[in-house]
Write a structure and sequence with these properties.
Elements (H helix, E strand, L loop, with lengths): L1 H5 L2 H52 L17 E5 L4 E4 L3 E5 L43 E15 L2 E15 L2 E10 L1 H53 L14 H50 L6 H25 L7 E4 H10 L7 E6 L3 E4 L1 H18 L3 E9 L2 E8 L33 H11 L3 E6 L5 E8 L2
Parallel strand pairs: 8-10
Antiparallel strand pairs: 1-2, 1-6, 3-4, 4-5, 5-6, 7-9, 10-11, 11-13, 12-13
Helix pairs in contact: 2-3, 4-5, 5-8, 6-7, 7-8
Length: about 475
């Protein structure tokens, strides 16, 4: 059951569509997550750079590190470090930090600097007071270079978060060269990514289930006519009733074209089978007469030798031989035998056929011009022989044979001055075992295979065989074949 299910077109289509959508969703989801993460990380980087630059500008304009108004540590942890790696200022409640290159969280007392007048800038003034945080004691500095970025973490007031840090250098301050580190939290980026990932993990399976269900239903609806075609073909095979036809959907898609083609094939097969049955029936009927006649004559001759009609027995034998040869040729043509590619001069072939015929009551006139075709010499000789037999059988006094070239065609015309062929019967005479003069004796006419064989041979040589009225009033058969 499983093998049958997964071997169906519906299951394969559903599985394929689901896999394609799954791959597309995974690729789109990964792209969305990466873009979201990059965007939020960029925002955190901008915030960190902005905070670092604000602090650096304050220092560069003369504010002492100890007098800086630093932002809340939970939002933006800040460190100010001198060239010796000593922490001069840090955000409030900063407990731990990593990723800045300086793990200290408690500022140290800055070193004492002396002015040019010899006064102690960091000591007591003349009144005994200490001058701390006075802008006059700090020279203006210069912010150099671009911000350096790094990733790390920090613990502020017991809460640990991941941060994006930016570092800016401030040169030539009163405290020497200083470095400002400022961070921006990545909690928004991480929360957004987790939320998006959760939505994708929940939504993607649901979406894939919907895609699979819709594909299954749509495929079932689309393939329903195919199942109807299959079941009807199975019934036709079981009943062997080629008259039945598969249902054709009222659409213009591939399934409808398949149904129409199947019905056309069934019609052609029915015609072929019916033709074969009729051929077998007619052949058996035609063979029965000469065999019965020959047997009767032989039995009479055996009992009464003086009554044996030798000439009649020979004639029946010849007729039987010709009929068997015609049936064998038709069988080979029906089997798809292709003609050979030998080059044949139709004028020479016509003269050869005429030379082998005994003189009859009808005079034969020839107007032949050399023209070559490609095909089977034996089959084309049979065509000319059949046309000549037919003309001599129905002619009153004259038979005319013409061979000529007409453009890309070789044309052979065989005409007589007989009764002709009624226009309504001009296609029917090319059917097998059809004779228009049914009332005459069989011994006087053929079996009705000559013209059928002639047309089949002509068609298989890429040509055609037609009949019309001749100028003399009889029938004019025209054979057209491609010039070699």
């Amino acid at each position: 059951m499983r093998r049958r299910l997964f071997g169906s077109v519906r299951a394969k289509t559903t599985l394929g569509a689901t896999l394609v959508v799954a791959v597309a969703l995974l690729a789109a989801g990964a792209a969305v997550l990466l873009a979201l993460r990059a965007n939020l990380t960029g925002q955190a980087t901008s915030e960190a750079e902005s905070s670092a630059r604000q602090v650096a500008v304050s220092i560069a304009t003369g504010t002492a590190p100890a007098a800086l108004e630093l932002p809340d540590g939970e939002d933006t942890p800040v460190q100010v470090v001198d060239s010796d790696g000593r922490l001069l200022a840090a955000s409030h409640d900063l407990e731990r930090i990593s990723g800045t290159g300086e793990s200290a969280v408690k500022p140290v007392t800055p070193p004492v600097a002396h002015s040019n007048s010899g006064d102690d800038d960091g000591g007591s003034d003349r009144h005994g007071g200490r001058r701390g945080g006075n802008d006059d004691n700090y020279a203006f500095g210069q912010i150099t270079g671009h911000a350096r970025l790094s990733a790390g973490s920090a613990t502020v007031d017991g809460s640990t978060e991941n941060y994006r840090f930016a570092a800016l250098d401030v040169k030539n301050t009163r405290q020497g060269d200083l470095t400002v580190y400022a961070g921006a939290p990545l909690s928004a980026e991480q929360g957004a990514v987790r939320t998006a990932l959760t939505v994708m993990l929940i939504g993607f399976p649901v979406l894939l289930g919907v895609v699979a269900a819709v594909t299954w239903l749509v495929t079932r609806r689309a393939l329903r006519p195919v199942e109807g075609i299959r079941s009807e073909m199975s019934a036709i095979t079981a009943s062997q009733d080629l008259a039945r036809r598969v249902p054709e959907p009222d659409t213009y898609d591939e399934v409808a074209r398949l149904a129409r083609t199947t019905n056309e094939t069934l019609a052609a097969l029915e015609t072929s089978v019916e033709r074969q049955r009729r051929f077998v029936a007619d052949a058996s009927h035609e063979l029965r007469s000469p065999i019965a006649s020959l047997r009767t004559q032989l039995e009479v001759g055996a009992a009464h030798p003086e009554l044996l009609d030798v000439d009649g027995a020979v004639a029946d034998t010849v007729r039987l031989q010709e009929l068997a040869a015609g049936l064998l040729l038709l069988a080979r043509l029906d089997a798809g035998e292709r003609p050979a590619g030998t080059r044949i001069d139709l004028a020479a072939l016509a003269r050869e056929e005429l030379s082998q015929r005994p003189a009859g009551p009808a005079e034969v006139e020839t107007h032949v011009t050399s023209v070559e075709v490609a095909g089977s010499r034996g089959q084309l000789a049979r065509v000319l022989g059949n046309l000549l037999d037919n003309a001599q059988r129905h002619a009153r006094s004259r038979v005319e044979v013409t061979v000529r070239a007409e453009g890309a065609w070789a044309v052979v015309e065989v005409g007589d001055d007989g009764a002709g062929v009624p226009e309504a019967e001009r296609e029917r005479i090319f059917e097998r075992f059809v004779r228009l003069d049914d009332a005459r004796a069989r011994d006087d006419g053929g079996a009705g295979l000559g013209l059928a064989i002639a047309r089949d041979v002509a068609v298989r040589h890429g040509g055609a065989l037609t009949v019309r009225s001749s100028p003399g009033g009889g029938a004019l058969f025209e054979l057209r074949l491609p010039v070699a």
